[in-house]
Every structure is written in structure tokens, then in C-alpha cells.
Request: fold
Amino acid sequence: MIVLGIESSCDETGIALFDSEKGLLAHTLHSQVELHAEYGGVVPELASRDHIRYLVPLLEQTLAQAGIEKSALDGIAYTAGPGLIGALMSGASVGRSLAWALGIPAVEVHHMEGHLLAPMLEENPPNFPFVALLVSGGHTLLAYVKGIGQYELLGQSLDDAAGEAFDKTAKLLGLGYPGGPALAAMAEKGRAGIYKFPRPMIDRPGVDFSFSGLKTFALNTMQKAAHQDGSDGELSEQVKADISLAFEEAVVDTLKIKCRRALQQQQCNKLVIAGGVGANKRLRAELADMIKQMGGELHYPRVEFCTDNGAMIAQVGCFRLVAGETQALEIDARARWSMQDLKAI
Ligand code: KG4
Ligand code: ZN
Reply:
């Protein structure tokens, strides 16, 4: 079965073709980073319009890349939530209508399920069950994954998602948008041990997170540094790098502590990292160290499949279509959608 996948939940238009036998056949991506950069964040209306502009050309490009005709498609999968409603509607409209025109089934895909199973696009996919750390711009959670659609929520962020904390702190430091990669690059020039940030909620039982305090801590640190002797109210690039490093270390360390706790609690030694913050080099290295010490397995997707992409949507859509799931003849999308509502297959 060949499935066309469409991702348009936020600021990336992604299209991919996934074959139930051969795996990923082709994928293309258009990032809207430049479009939103001058506003310092995603402007929803501009995002929707840009998806409309790029969906069809990318779709044609992806088919050409794989060397197949539309008539060879057996199903269409599109992100139906969670995300920006206008952005979601653009992909859902194209996807559902194309499936109707071709007389093939369509299926709705949950964006976070796409992220969660993205490591299965790689050569050495994880076997169920495993513990998954899902860290993106909108969500931070730990889940025990027993199978497709069987996600037991172990803990989640009570306020900002880890990616959101990266983005907001980067903005405070004047590092621009998107903040995560910019702050991580700045942190590489930072000197260790100059600043020490707290590790939120590690003294409490359970595996919930809270990241909003780190942003306030960063702001206070910046204000103090700007008024220190020798500073004229402006932060030097070195001070910004030192703060970036201390912030990144705090987020990564907190995620690591909670991952270890979740694995121990579930008596499991297999960990999967997914979502945009999963592209962070320090996070990958620290978790790899921890898993090595535990004698376990660590799985993560290649960097381009950590952030939003069509491949992860085509893959989940293919799993669900093969299992017989289909979407009725209606175009539907939802800004909020709990992963607990997904059907097990
Ligand atoms: O999964 P994703 O592409 O979109 C959502 O579904 O939210 O995640 C985007 C988030 C952003 O907050 C971005 O700043 C963060 O992932 N991110 C990173 C890195 N690359 C992307 N955060 C830290 N370090 C990175 N290298
Ligand atoms: Zn995402």
C-alpha cells in the first residue's frame, strides 16, 4: 500500500510517500522560518496562506521524486491536529479532497503520534514496549508505549513545553526565531560553571515537568549581569553564551533525571526521543550516556525527522490505513486532540 502523507500543523509544509512494504519512498519539506522571522514567532494567518501556496507544488515534486503517478496511490494521510487550526485545515482540505477525487481512503493523523513513532522510520526501529520522551514546541511528555495507539501518559509539562522554554529564553537573549537551534548554537560558545540554573521539580515525586520558571530565572540572571561592574546595561556575546549554556544544561539535566525515573518506574530500559527538541545535541549525548550506563537502548530519528515533516505522518497514516481505519467524507481538524483518544491498532 502506497500512502501520501501531508503535514501542515504549524510552520512547515511536509509531504511524503510511504510504502507498507518498502518504507519511505520520498519526502519534501518547505520551512516557513524566513516568513515568520521578522515577527519573532509564527503568525497563524501567514502560515495558513503559505501552506496553501506550497502544498500542491510539493505534492507534485514528491510524486516525481518517487517516480510514481497519483493513480498509484492507495491512501492519503494528513495531520488533523493538534496545531494551528487554519494551517491544519489547509492540509486536511487538500488531503481529504484528493482522496475523494482519486476514490481512495483518507485517514487523519495525530501530529504527536507522528513524532512519537518517527524513530520507526530509521534502520534499527525500537520494539514495543518502550518509554518515549516527546519534546516539541507545543508538548513535553513521557509516555509508556505498549503498541501503536497504546500510550500511557506518565507525566507532562504543567506549563511551558521544553521547546517553548528554549524559544522564549532565546527571544529574551535576542537570539531570534526559531529559538531552540539559535540558543543551542550560542551555548556551544558558553563557559561551563559561570551560571547555575535550577532543575525544576526534581525534588518532587513523579515525572511531570515545569519549564516556565527557567525563563524567568534567565531574565533575572540577564538583568543582574547587565548591571554588574563593567557592563553598561548591555550583555556581551560571551555573557549571552554563558547564560545559554547554563539554561540548556538545566533543561537537558531535568529531562535526563525524569527519563531515568520513568524507565525505573516502568522497569524498562528502552528509551525513544522524539520531537523538535530531540534535535538538541546535548540532549542526545546526555541520554546516550545514561542509557549506556543502564545497559539499555536509545532510539531517535535523524535530525530532519525530529522537527516537523511529512514522513512521520505518511508512516502513521500507512499503519492506520493498513489496519482498516478511514476518515468519513468530511473535512475535519482540531487545534486540541488528546493522544489518549487514539485507537489502538
Ligand atoms: O516538533 P517541532 O518541530 O514542532 C512542534 O510540534 O512543536 O518542534 C519545534 C521546537 C521548537 O520549539 C524549536 O525551538 C525546538 O523544537 N528545537 C530545538 C532544537 N531544534 C528545534 N530546541 C533545542 N535544540 C535544538 N537543536
Ligand atoms: Zn511537531
User: Anything to note?
Assistant: The beta strands are 2-7, 12-19, 23-31, 75-81, 106-110, 130-135, 140-147, 150-156, 270-274, 297-299. The pocket of zinc ion (ligand 2) is lined by residues 111, 115, 136, 276, 308 (CB under 6 Å). The chain has two domains: 2-117+305-341, 125-300.
